[in-house]
Amino acid sequence: MAKNNILIVDDSKTVRNLVAFILKKEGYKVTAAENGLDGLEKLYSMEQVDLIISDINMPKMDGFTFIRHVREQVLYRDLPIVVLSTEGQEKDIQQGLQLGANLYMVKPAQPEKLLRNVKMLLG
After folding, report:
1. What are the record keywords, sorted (predicted)?
2. pLDDT digits 0-9 by tens, 26-44
């Protein structure tokens, strides 16, 4: 059985590689994008995306704008989105969740906790 496809959107190559490593070790398929614009292009070109993990602070298109665009598409209304960001202030968390993120995690996230949340959201 093929594992789920996860799209990672983060401008930090280090974070993308780390999160991809954690997920791939568990058998997930991973596609990485370096900002929200790149993320939308990858999302639209992928056959199937089961979950998105997105940063907030990124060049070209930030995570909030990215999430808003994803949620505007009927096809992606119910797609689980996890925000993984260094922005841990209440206003950022509120905004992320109001825009449609299912979960907001503050970096650095524990690999076990990230995996547990991914598994939970993928049911």
Report:
1. Phosphoprotein
2. 999 999 999 999 999 999 9
